[in-house]
Structure to design on (226 residues):
């Protein structure tokens, strides 16, 4: 009977991050579908971009970094179902979503925070050191957006100067790992705090136009170079 609380705690822990993982998949799949609709793709293009955007980050995390067997996306049917639901809802309700680009931005920001948390948790559970866990969380968060941008032939947002994107993921992942290692807060509370942190930073960066700068700025030739 002494093992029952431990089993319940472990179940709660696993359930919490399954919910966060599926939430992130839904957000990124919706973001990909909306981006495809904005690009005027047909339903096949929208479906493919929804799948790639929704599952890309998890595939990078599980196949490249964690390497603990087949990725969850191909062993748990819930992931495929969530992507299909995101695709169908995007197809049905996109006409009612005013300012589609802004909607895509908000959805993408939510997915960014949630996916970063899931990546960090998976890395810590696999025994990776804290800095490596943060790195996995960052790649988990930005991987789907990177693949999506490449497929729709847009320069990936993380490669160019602009409003914080990867920076928001870095902060959110750092908050999650730090709180997980050095506080007694519940896993759910830590996950929510880290997700809200990353999402808020991303949205504030867009709202107030916080931007990074290029390392090498364009230089106007001086008189001595004429």
């Amino acid at each position: 009977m002494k093992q029952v609380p431990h089993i319940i705690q472990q179940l709660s822990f696993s359930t919490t991050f399954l919910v966060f993982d599926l939430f992130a998949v839904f957000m990124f799949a919706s973001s990909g579908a909306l981006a495809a609709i904005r690009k005027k793709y047909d339903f096949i293009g929208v479906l493919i971009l929804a799948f790639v955007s929704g599952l890309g980050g998890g595939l990078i995390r599980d196949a490249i970094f964690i390497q603990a067997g087949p990725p969850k996306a191909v062993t748990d049917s819930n992931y495929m179902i969530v992507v299909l639901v995101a695709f169908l809802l995007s197809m049905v309700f996109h006409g009612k979503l005013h300012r589609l680009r802004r909607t895509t931005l908000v959805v993408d920001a939510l997915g960014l925070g949630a996916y970063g948390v899931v990546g960090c948790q998976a890395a810590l559970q696999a025994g990776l050191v804290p800095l490596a866990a943060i790195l996995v969380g960052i790649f988990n968060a930005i991987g789907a957006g990177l693949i999506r941008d490449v497929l729709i032939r847009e320069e990936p947002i993380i490669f160019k100067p602009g409003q914080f994107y990867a920076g928001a993921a870095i902060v959110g992942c750092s908050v999650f790992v730090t709180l997980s290692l050095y506080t007694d807060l519940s896993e759910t509370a830590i996950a929510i705090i880290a997700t809200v942190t990353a999402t808020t930073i991303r949205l504030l960066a867009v709202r107030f136009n916080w931007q990074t700068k290029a390392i090498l700025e364009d230089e106007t030739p001086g008189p001595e170079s004429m």
